[in-house]
Each structure stands twice: as C-alpha cells, then as structure tokens.
C-alpha cells in the first residue's frame, strides 16, 4: 500500500496529504514538503517554545537543567566542653561576675565622693583600677559571646562556641574546598572596625573564600552528644 507524504503549513502547523493538497485550505498559503517540521518562537528572557510535527522518535531535550555547583562542606572536627572542676562553664558567669564587679567599683567611687566634704575616711573599700577594667571586660565578653555564639581565638584555628543552653565549648571546624578540594579553615579577618569571619581555603585563601554562617552547623551541644 502506497502512503502519500504529508505536507505541513508553516503558519498553522496543520498537515495535509500531498496527493490532495498543495495549499493550506485554512491559511491559503503553499504547504511545506517536509515530514519533519519544526517552528521556534522566543519570548522574553530566552524562553523557548517548540512545536514538532511528523514521524519523530527519540527524546528531545529543551533547556536542560545545569548541574548544581559543588558546595564547600564544613563540620566540627573537634568539640570539647569548657569546664572548671567538672562544672560546665556558662556564658552568664562572665556577664554576672562582670556586672557585680562594676557595681562594686561604682559603689566604692560613690562612697569616696560622698565623704570628700566631711574629711572622714570612706567606709567603703576602694578597688584598684585593674579590677574595674577586668570587670568591664568580663561583662562585655559575656554579652558579646551570647550575641555572636561564635568567637575565633587569635592565632589559632580553634574557637569558643555557645550552645542554646549557654554552655561554652572549644571547637575546631574543618572541611574541603569546593574549588580545589584542599582543606579549609575558619578565620576572622579584616581591620578592627570591620572584622568578618570567613571560611577560606588553605591552598588559595585569597580567592577561595566564603563568609562563614555558623547556623548551618546547628547547635554545638547536639553535635557533641552525637
């Protein structure tokens, strides 16, 4: 049995037997003599629509999804609870001791000021200046640690982290660079007025560098209990 070929209209894409039609009865234009007819239209930002007619076999891939870029994976390599006499150290220890020290110093200064006019010796002890500075440092350290939850130690690849319940841990974070598969480390860099914590490659720290997000690691206490 002979089969006649099919002609297609390039405007409406309808197909008609070649032995009966040479013009499209709808559009009144000549038909294309092709068993495979493809029309493409592009709209907007490279959005592509394709119509395919005829006897086609196989798969057609349109706008393939690009592979997802490789990510730099980091994890806590070392987790050690900070404790004194087997008692876990909490962040509020620093805040509370610093606040008490500052209050004591202010009370001493106020007592001296109140007795200056009487010529009598102040009944309140006067604290040395270093104790006031230490109290202020402890208070600021406690508040800052609670806000940041992560503090890189100077000249070291270790850090102090705070868990959700306020306990302090000594940790070290490691991983593999997504660009060159070299080890990575977490560092705090930049001038004093604008220091940032980054994950940087040990092989190419200037170009292979990303801003550190501690939240992707989860709670440090949960990692310690695993």
From TrEMBL:
<keyword id="KW-1133">Transmembrane helix</keyword>
<feature type="transmembrane region" description="Helical">
    <location>
        <begin position="127"/>
        <end position="146"/>
    </location>
</feature>
<keyword id="KW-0472">Membrane</keyword>
<protein>
    <submittedName>
        <fullName>Uncharacterized protein</fullName>
    </submittedName>
</protein>
<keyword id="KW-0812">Transmembrane</keyword>
<feature type="transmembrane region" description="Helical">
    <location>
        <begin position="92"/>
        <end position="115"/>
    </location>
</feature>
């Amino acid at each position: 049995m002979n089969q006649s070929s099919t002609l297609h209209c390039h405007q409406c894409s309808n197909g008609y037997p070649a032995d009966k039609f040479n013009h499209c009865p709808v559009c009144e234009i000549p038909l294309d003599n092709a068993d495979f007819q493809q029309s493409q239209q592009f709209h907007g930002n490279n959005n592509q629509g394709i119509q395919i007619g005829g006897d086609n076999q196989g798969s057609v891939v349109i706008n393939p999804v690009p592979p997802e870029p490789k990510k730099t994976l980091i994890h806590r390599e070392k987790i050690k609870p900070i404790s004194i006499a087997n008692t876990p150290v909490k962040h509020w220890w620093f805040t509370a001791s610093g606040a008490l020290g500052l209050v004591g110093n202010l009370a001493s200064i106020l007592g001296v000021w109140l007795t200056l006019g009487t010529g009598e010796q102040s009944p309140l002890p006067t604290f040395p200046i270093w104790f006031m500075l230490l109290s202020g440092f402890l208070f600021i350290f406690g508040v800052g640690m609670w806000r940041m939850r992560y503090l890189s130690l100077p000249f070291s690849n270790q850090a102090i982290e705070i868990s959700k319940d306020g306990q302090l841990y000594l940790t070290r974070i490691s991983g593999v660079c997504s660009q060159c598969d070299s080890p990575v480390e977490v560092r705090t860099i930049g001038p004093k007025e604008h220091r940032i914590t980054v994950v940087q490659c040990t092989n190419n720290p200037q170009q292979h560098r990303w801003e550190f997000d501690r939240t992707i690691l989860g709670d440090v206490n949960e990692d310690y209990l695993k």
